[in-house]
Amino acid sequence: MNRMDVVQLDSLLSALYEASLDHECWGDALEQIKALFSANYVTLILKMPETQDEDDLGLMVSVGEMENSGRVVYFPYRHNLTPFVNQKPDTVFTQEDLMTPEEWHDCPYRIHWCACNDVYHVMAVDISTPDSGTLRFRITRPEDATPFSDEDRELCRFLLPHIRRALNIRNLLDRSQTLGSLYSKAISRLSIATVLIDENGQILDENVFAREILDSGDGLKVVGGRLEASYPSDNRELRRVIKEAFEGSRSESGTRLPEAMSVTRPSGEVSLGVVVEPIPSTAWAEGKGQPAAVVYIRDAVGKSQASNEVAKKLFGLTPAETALSLQLANGLSLEEAAEALNIRRNTARAHLRAIFSKTGVRRQTELVRIFLNSVAALGQGDQDPRD
User: Fold this and answer.
1) Ranges for the HTH luxR-type domain (predicted)?
2) What is the pLDDT of residues 160-203, one digit of tens each?
3) Is the distance from CB of 367 to CB of 334 less than 8 angstroms?
4) Would 6-177 and 190-298 be classified into the same CATH topology?
5) How many CB atoms lie within 10 A of CB 263?
6) What is the CATH number of domain 308-379?
7) CA-CA to 222 of 20 to 30 Å: which in 18, 68, 198, 249?
8) For residues 223 and 227, what is the distance between their CA atoms, to the nearest angstrom?
9) From the CA atom positions of the chain, what is the Rg in Å?
């Protein structure tokens, strides 16, 4: 451990934890490890190909004299020749632990993969992680360099928990971002507009459905970057709702219901439904950063975004029956739906009888209800409601 001073340790650990937050920073962390061990390559294999299929690629980040050094890249691994498989997890080893110098010199893996890259001395460890399986970490030197020493092994073992922790943080963040993206898509697919605001009503972010409503200026609008209602009375109520939502989030009285109101639309359409819910923060972060809340906006007359294909599978309908059902779910009468679909009224009535038989409902209002309450909208692809 005498080869590493406090400044080096601080720099390397900072680089590792920066890498845990951003994939692009792995190059810096591995470059520092490369310099620390006087290596010519340092490689972190994040995923090994599972088959010999040419479309099955692994994922790794490596530094050294190569193309894409320091970048996370996909790579092929055609030859199942490596002698470093099935090693005990979290145990540092070198090629000398597995074979004699003569065996290593004649090893097909060294000949095909190592010699062409001036790789001879190899120090490796298979890092076990809670959720990502086993990741492979490799440090190499050329043949004319000194072999890895016991001190090198000790230093590698010292760094191992930090590398594992950085990888685990990255995995947890990736999972959290993925879940957040899925939830956001689910809300969008239900045609719910969402606006992220601060305590003063300044808009921090919005989804595409909210942008459509705000651009229309019919009930809600953006004035100077702030969310406002069209009518003064509604605007005063909106300010009160936002204020009470934030004050409620700071109270110690326990969980409170989100604040809600309706917003009148100048067009005369059905009022917009608005719910304001503060984003909770952890206790240790209380008072730090920018307070925020989510404004959910529901347009009761907005068209259903249900997927034709999913609706057809859910209810066992034909394409024609599905198309008619979705038109009815969007508020059209049977006659209006027939006209929109360019079919005869008698044909529409025949389709409706078949739909009633397959869904088990007896009235058109019941049909609309089961469609709007079904998961059909969640089965659609990502789309812009203005398309």
Assistant:
1) 314-371
2) 999 988 888 887 777 766 666 656 665 555 567 888 898 888 99
3) no
4) yes
5) 20
6) 1.10.10.10
7) 249
8) 7
9) 30
